Amino acid sequence: MIFKNVPHIRFASRLKISKVGMRAFHRVSSFVKPTTRMIQHFGHESTKARLRINEEQLLKFLAGDSIPVDLDLDDGYVILDLGKRWILGLGLLINGRVRSQLPRKELRESMIKETTTSPI
Protein backbone atom coordinates (compact mmCIF):
# COMPACT_ATOMS: atom_id res chain seq x y z
CA MET A 1 0.00 0.00 0.00
CA ILE A 2 1.39 3.39 -0.97
CA PHE A 3 -0.39 5.39 1.76
CA LYS A 4 0.21 3.43 4.91
CA ASN A 5 -1.05 4.95 8.17
CA VAL A 6 -2.19 8.23 6.63
CA PRO A 7 -5.00 9.74 8.79
CA HIS A 8 -6.93 11.14 5.80
CA ILE A 9 -6.98 7.76 4.06
CA ARG A 10 -8.23 6.01 7.18
CA PHE A 11 -11.02 8.58 7.51
CA ALA A 12 -11.95 8.36 3.82
CA SER A 13 -12.07 4.57 3.94
CA ARG A 14 -15.07 4.80 6.30
CA LEU A 15 -17.11 6.87 3.84
CA LYS A 16 -19.83 5.13 1.87
CA ILE A 17 -19.69 5.88 -1.84
CA SER A 18 -23.12 6.37 -3.35
CA LYS A 19 -22.16 7.39 -6.88
CA VAL A 20 -18.98 7.46 -8.89
CA GLY A 21 -18.27 9.66 -11.87
CA MET A 22 -19.39 12.98 -13.21
CA ARG A 23 -22.96 13.81 -14.13
CA ALA A 24 -23.05 14.57 -17.82
CA PHE A 25 -26.65 15.52 -18.70
CA HIS A 26 -30.01 16.29 -17.15
CA ARG A 27 -33.42 17.15 -18.54
CA VAL A 28 -34.59 20.76 -18.33
CA SER A 29 -38.05 21.26 -19.77
CA SER A 30 -37.96 19.94 -23.35
CA PHE A 31 -34.16 20.12 -23.58
CA VAL A 32 -31.40 17.76 -22.53
CA LYS A 33 -28.85 19.99 -20.84
CA PRO A 34 -25.18 19.07 -20.59
CA THR A 35 -23.72 19.96 -17.20
CA THR A 36 -21.35 22.90 -16.91
CA ARG A 37 -18.59 20.61 -15.62
CA MET A 38 -18.89 18.27 -18.59
CA ILE A 39 -18.78 21.17 -21.03
CA GLN A 40 -15.79 22.74 -19.28
CA HIS A 41 -13.91 19.44 -19.45
CA PHE A 42 -14.91 18.23 -22.92
CA GLY A 43 -16.33 21.28 -24.73
CA HIS A 44 -13.05 22.00 -26.49
CA GLU A 45 -13.77 18.90 -28.61
CA SER A 46 -17.07 20.28 -29.90
CA THR A 47 -17.53 21.15 -33.54
CA LYS A 48 -21.19 22.28 -33.50
CA ALA A 49 -23.46 24.45 -31.36
CA ARG A 50 -20.53 26.57 -30.26
CA LEU A 51 -20.51 30.33 -29.85
CA ARG A 52 -17.34 32.34 -29.46
CA ILE A 53 -18.02 35.42 -27.38
CA ASN A 54 -15.90 38.49 -26.80
CA GLU A 55 -15.17 40.34 -23.59
CA GLU A 56 -18.04 42.81 -24.12
CA GLN A 57 -20.55 39.97 -24.52
CA LEU A 58 -19.13 38.26 -21.44
CA LEU A 59 -19.71 41.42 -19.42
CA LYS A 60 -23.34 41.48 -20.64
CA PHE A 61 -23.77 37.90 -19.44
CA LEU A 62 -22.26 38.82 -16.09
CA ALA A 63 -24.78 41.65 -15.83
CA GLY A 64 -27.61 39.19 -16.47
CA ASP A 65 -28.36 40.34 -20.02
CA SER A 66 -28.88 38.18 -23.10
CA ILE A 67 -27.11 38.81 -26.39
CA PRO A 68 -28.53 38.71 -29.93
CA VAL A 69 -26.91 36.20 -32.29
CA ASP A 70 -27.36 35.08 -35.87
CA LEU A 71 -26.73 31.34 -35.74
CA ASP A 72 -28.05 28.66 -38.08
CA LEU A 73 -29.12 26.48 -35.13
CA ASP A 74 -32.36 25.31 -33.57
CA ASP A 75 -33.22 26.64 -30.15
CA GLY A 76 -31.29 24.86 -27.42
CA TYR A 77 -27.99 24.90 -25.60
CA VAL A 78 -24.77 26.26 -27.10
CA ILE A 79 -21.23 26.04 -25.80
CA LEU A 80 -19.77 29.43 -24.92
CA ASP A 81 -16.09 29.97 -25.46
CA LEU A 82 -13.88 32.96 -24.93
CA GLY A 83 -11.24 32.09 -27.48
CA LYS A 84 -9.76 28.65 -27.93
CA ARG A 85 -8.29 28.55 -24.44
CA TRP A 86 -11.44 29.17 -22.37
CA ILE A 87 -14.56 27.07 -22.53
CA LEU A 88 -16.87 28.92 -20.18
CA GLY A 89 -19.92 26.69 -20.17
CA LEU A 90 -23.38 26.93 -21.72
CA GLY A 91 -25.78 29.47 -23.08
CA LEU A 92 -29.43 28.91 -23.98
CA LEU A 93 -30.38 29.98 -27.51
CA ILE A 94 -34.05 30.95 -27.82
CA ASN A 95 -35.44 32.99 -30.74
CA GLY A 96 -32.09 34.45 -31.81
CA ARG A 97 -30.93 35.47 -28.32
CA VAL A 98 -28.50 33.66 -26.04
CA ARG A 99 -28.93 33.77 -22.31
CA SER A 100 -26.06 32.75 -20.06
CA GLN A 101 -26.39 29.48 -18.16
CA LEU A 102 -23.06 30.09 -16.44
CA PRO A 103 -22.91 29.99 -12.66
CA ARG A 104 -22.33 33.72 -12.02
CA LYS A 105 -20.41 33.48 -8.77
CA GLU A 106 -18.08 30.82 -10.13
CA LEU A 107 -17.61 32.69 -13.40
CA ARG A 108 -16.76 35.96 -11.69
CA GLU A 109 -14.20 34.30 -9.42
CA SER A 110 -12.69 32.37 -12.31
CA MET A 111 -12.52 35.35 -14.67
CA ILE A 112 -11.02 37.63 -12.04
CA LYS A 113 -8.31 35.06 -11.37
CA GLU A 114 -7.67 34.39 -15.08
CA THR A 115 -7.61 38.04 -16.17
CA THR A 116 -5.12 38.95 -13.46
CA THR A 117 -2.76 36.19 -14.62
CA SER A 118 -3.38 36.03 -18.39
CA PRO A 119 -4.60 38.46 -21.04
CA ILE A 120 -7.94 37.69 -22.72
What are the main properties of this structure?
120 residues; two-stranded antiparallel ribbon; alpha+beta; Archaeosine Trna-guanine Transglycosylase, Chain: A, domain 4; five-stranded mixed β-sheet
Characterize the structure shown:
With 120 residues, the protein is of the alpha+beta class. The chain has a single domain, classed as Archaeosine Trna-guanine Transglycosylase, Chain: A, domain 4 (Roll). It contains four helices and seven strands. The protein has a five-stranded mixed β-sheet. The protein has a two-stranded antiparallel sheet with strand order 1-2. Strand 5 (76-81) and strand 6 form a beta hairpin. It is elongated.
Could you say how many structural domains there are in total? 1
Q: How would you classify the helix and strand content by structural class?
A: alpha+beta
Gross CATH architecture: Roll
Helix fraction, binned, reads: 25-40%
Give a nutshell description of this structure.
The protein is built from four helices and seven strands; from the N terminus they run αββαβαββββα. The protein has 120 residues and is an alpha+beta fold.
Topology:
Elements: H1 7-13, E1 25-28, E2 31-34, H2 36-42, E3 50-52, H3 55-62, E4 67-68, E5 76-81, E6 87-94, E7 97-100, H4 104-117
Parallel strand pairs: 3-5
Antiparallel strand pairs: 1-2, 4-7, 5-6, 6-7
